[in-house]
Each structure stands twice: as C-alpha cells, then as structure tokens.
Amino acid sequence: MSAECRSLLPMTGQRILIVEDDQRIGSSLLRALDGSGYDAVWEQTGRAGLASVASVRPDLVLLDLGLPDVDGLTVCRQIHETDPTVDVVMLTARDEELDIVVGLDAGAVDYVTKPFKLAELLARIRAQLRRREARLDSRSSVGDLVLDLGARRVWLDEEELEMRPKEFDLLSRLVEDAGLAVSREALMSDVWDEHWFGSTKTLDFHIAALRRKIDRPGHDSRITTLRGVGYRFEVP
Length: 236
What we know:
Strand content: 15-25%
Number of strands: 12
C-alpha cells in the first residue's frame, strides 16, 4: 500500500461523537464512521452530547447547530469548557459568512454546510485528526499537569492556566527533567540567557508565581527548593 493510501486510513480507536437530531443524517454518519474504522457515538440532543463528551472523551465532535434543546453554539462553548483539547466540526444549514465566523469564534475548528458530500466530510475529519495527533505529539505531562509545547499552553486537571512567557519557559524546563535536580545556573541559562547579568532573584520570583498557579492549597508544592543547588519538579 502506498504512503498516500495509508494516510487516508483512520487510526484505530479514534473516537468521534456525533451530535445531530436529524435521524437520516445521524444514522448515515454513524454507519459511515463505523465502516471507516472509527469508534463512533451518536447523540440526538445537546444535553446528551455534553454528557457524552465527559464520558466518551471523544477525539472529535461533529456538532449540528440546529439542535432541539440547546443552541449548538452554546454546546460548542461548553464542550471547550469541559475539555479544551476536543476538536469540534460544526454541521449546519446556515451558510452566511457571519454564521461561520460566530461558529469558529465559539471554538469550532471547521464548518461544514448541509447538504454535504460524505466523502468530503470524511476527508475533513481525517485532516483534523491528523492535526490533533501532531498537536498531541508536542505535549508532555506530569500527573494532572499537561503542557503543549507547540501551542505554549498549560492545563491543570483539564483547566487551562494563564502563563506569562517566562513562566511557561521555566515550567517546561523543569518538567523536561521532572524528578531531577536542575541547578539555578542551568535554569538561568536555559530560560533567560547565558549572558544574563541581572539578579537571580528573578528566578525565585518566577518560581513563586508558578507555585501559586500550579500548587493546590494544603498540598506540598510540585516544585521543591534544593538549597544551594536549584529546584526539582516532583513526579507524583
């Protein structure tokens, strides 16, 4: 089989959630996705779809905007509140530019108008899943803390944290050697600059800021101070 042909095949076990109230469209999508090797689940209301996001943990959601109980834009926003790593492809009969922009602003990665050709939709699904795999390849995690090095994003227990640029650089450097001691000199050189001539108090300031963001009240810090040496990011 050629490399081009292999790239068209889905990866086994990828989960796709369909949220579509139209019986004909929903059943057709379910058959097509199952036949293509995906693990597909079909829900017919927004509330059921949101419940499935939490239980199924899909890699991608096909979301109809015209749902009978909850507006699709609201569902999309709530999906990203539940799990910001899930990609959402919107399915809708609305094709006005403003509707598309609003949908993308709500967090969708793609927008397919009805009626659509099944082959085209499957191609878009494959493309989005390939992009997802590429993003996941740039991620590292220690316990419930996840870093996306490519996107420079951090999640703690699936809730995204706001990070200043140097805070992210420092955290990613510590996580790179999680469980090991990292000297102050190495941190200053790698995160700031090997020619840094300012006070190393800036390192302590950033460590304190990181602790406020990633440590849980009443628990030991994830970052241990090693007096006279540096710091160590603890592995749970």
